[in-house]
From TrEMBL:
This is Delta(14)-sterol reductase LBR. The gene is Lbr. It comes from Columbina picui (Picui ground-dove). PROSITE patterns: STEROL_REDUCT_1, STEROL_REDUCT_2. SMART domains: TUDOR. Residues 76-95 have a biased composition (Basic residues). GO terms for cellular component: endoplasmic reticulum membrane; nuclear inner membrane. Belongs to the ERG4/ERG24 family. It is a multi-pass membrane protein.
């Protein structure tokens, strides 16, 4: 078995994957099986490198000393002295043999220089390379630079031109200007090379290619299973599988037409020139996209349309009667939209691809989303679907379930349980639309591409699974007392307060850390220029917004009683989803913030649940 060359704790020069650039790293461990060294960069990034990709620091210092020993500037000085005005007469009397000897000496200098002429490249290292490796661009990190020595051989014609310039009698200012232009070109070319080789998604989520392929079929099946179970008289898990309806009953062209009408009505409201226009976070190329914030206005207009339909005796419980058909129509539309999004992403420039969906594997990129911000003109498809048709559709479906309950059970007023579910979830949706600008800082917008995962989630999962409690109460009415209702309401208010105040602290601090109103917040500075909050809600647990989400999800399910576990599916799903997101956030933040994140975790040990997890 080969012996290791570098010891733990030794400081060496490690090659950055996919490039010819070497950085100063520290060896942390060695795997005897794979023969790979685990090294840590200065910003805290840890990578596994082969022994052939690691060099000792002495080797770099030796090459640098060799280059400096034959410094062209010294030769230039000596030649300049030999041509002083006092010797000009003697220079004119030199023989032709001396001139030939002079030319031979110059050729010899060019040849010697071409053998060992290292180029010093100034490059954005450490944090910027870590950011590209993780797929998280941030313009605030673009000011951090570090010197990296890359020994690259110049082309012969450039070598000759460069040496001639160095040995000429031009003023040093002109030579320095040439040097700066030359270095800038080399830096630009090197950056382009690194971006192309390191922008691929390396950490695959959801089980990689196999997992995402299975989820494309599992997610629609899960939605249909939940809806079919809610229709049963006894929605117990013991009654699996539920009786399947005829396939022809799952599709109706009229229902699909109503869904399309709803989708394009929301698109029309999105395009209305009302509401302010704000900038999103910087992209990888430094550009900022513009977004019109008019979601709440669209909600008011939607409420006016629904009110008008009810005034003219439109039967809104039509949604309840054809609920499964609407779910199928939404699933078909989301699949067609996902195919369109992937096809158009194949022509998108490299800098417009999503950091999380650029693996090179068709299934994985199709599922997670290949393009980060697909737009048709100024119409941002991902941003539109994030809050509009699905989220507002959730409220409309809840209202339809309330009316269906009154009609089916011959009630003059809806049940207290149905009122609580509708009220709690309406508050959640209105809050999201009122604070629409905050969604621009979420990972859905800044990191995740727009593919099947978000398209199906926004258009199918949110409206048809999040309304599960209201759908359940139509067929399984549950009576609760006023004291119980008051206790559930208090629980929802606590969850909402934690959720909203935690998100407000984070968004305000991210937008303007120097705001005097946030002077009471303490934070840990990071190498990226950002800060990690260690006071307020973010000093209580690492993800207080997730804690608020889970408390509210529980309050939404409690009005359904405890006869069946089906209404609590949302709580179970939400906990699993947030734990997955929390693990992803932990991995991402550890790579992005390095040692600062380790300090933060020591300061705030609990992730979601205080004193538990």
């Amino acid at each position: 078995m080969p012996s290791r060359k570098f010891a733990d704790g030794e400081v060496v020069m490690g090659r950055w994957p996919g490039s010819v650039l070497y950085y100063e790293v520290q060896v942390t461990s060695y795997d005897d099986v794979s023969h790979l060294y685990t090294v840590k960069y200065k910003d805290g990034t840890e990578l596994a490198l082969k022994e052939s990709d690691i060099r000792s620091q002495s080797a770099f210092k030796h090459r640098k000393s060799q280059s400096s020993s034959s410094s062209p500037s010294r030769r230039s000085t000596s030649r300049s002295r030999s041509r002083s005005p006092g010797r000009s007469g003697k220079g004119r009397r030199r023989s032709s043999s001396q001139s030939r000897e002079h030319r031979d000496d110059k050729k010899k200098i060019i040849q010697e220089t071409s053998l060992d002429l290292p180029v010093l490249v100034w490059f954005k290292a450490s944090e910027n390379n870590t950011r590209r490796y993780n797929g998280e661009p941030d313009s605030t990190e673009r000011n951090d630079t570090s010197r990296v020595i890359s020994e690259q051989k110049l082309k012969p014609d450039l070598q000759i031109e460069r040496v001639i310039e160095q040995y000429s009698l031009r003023p040093r200012k002109e030579e320095k200007k040439k040097e700066e232009v030359y270095s800038e070109k080399k830096v630009f070319e090197t950056i382009k090379t690194i971006e192309k080789t390191s922008s691929k998604t390396k950490d695959l989520e959801f089980g990689g290619r196999i997992g995402t392929f299975a989820l494309i079929f599992f997610l629609p099946a899960a939605v249909f299973y939940l809806l079919l179970m809610c229709k049963q008289d006894d929605p117990s898990l013991m009654n699996f599988p539920p009786p399947l309806p005829p396939l022809e009953s799952l599709w109706e062209a009229r229902v699909f037409g109503v869904f399309l009408l709803w989708f394009f009505l929301q698109a029309l409201f999105y395009l209305l020139p009302i509401g302010k226009v704000v900038e999103g976070l910087p992209l990888s190329n430094g550009r900022k996209l513009h977004y019109r914030i008019n979601g709440f206005y669209a909600f008011v207009l939607t409420a006016a349309v629904i009110g008008t339909l009810l005034y003219f005796q439109f039967e809104l419980h039509y949604l309840y009667d054809h609920f499964m058909q609407f779910a199928v129509s939404a699933a078909v539309f989301s699949m067609v939209l996902s195919i369109y999004l992937y096809i158009r992403s194949l022509k998108a420039p490299q800098e417009e691809l999503a950091p999380s969906g650029n693996s090179g594997y068709f299934i994985y990129d199709f599922f997670t989303g290949h393009e980060l911000n697909p737009r048709i003109g100024s119409f941002d498809l991902k941003y539109f679907c994030e809050l509009r048709p699905g989220l507002m559709g959730w409220v409309v479906i809840n209202l339809a379930m309330l009316l269906a309950e009154m009609k089916i059970h011959n009630q003059s007023t809806p049940s207290l349980s149905m009122i609580l579910v509708n009220s709690f979830q309406l508050l959640y949706v209105v809050d999201a639309l009122w604070n629409e600008e905050a969604v621009l800082t979420t990972m859905d917008i800044t990191h995740d591409g727009f593919g099947f995962m978000l398209a199906f989630g926004d258009l199918v999962w949110v409206p048809f699974v999040y309304s599960l409690q209201a759908f359940y109460l139509v067929g399984h009415p549950t009576a609760i007392s006023w004291p119980v209702a008051a206790a559930i309401t208090l629980l929802n208010c606590i969850g909402y307060y934690i959720f909203r105040s935690a998100n407000s602290q984070k968004n305000n601090f991210r937008r303007n850390p120097g705001d005097p109103k946030l002077a009471y917040l303490k934070f840990i500075p990071t190498a990226t220029g950002k800060g990690l909050l260690v006071t307020g809600w973010w000093g209580f647990v690492r993800h207080p917004n997730y804690l608020g989400d889970i408390i509210m999800a529980l309050a939404w399910s409690l009005p359904c009683g405890f006869n069946h576990i089906l209404p609590y599916f949302y709580v179970i799903y939400f906990i699993c989803l947030l734990v997955h997101r929390e693990a992803r956030d932990e991995h991402h933040c550890k790579q992005k913030y390095g040692l600062a994140w380790e300090r933060y975790c020591q300061r705030v040990p609990y992730r979601i649940f205080p004193y538990i997890y």
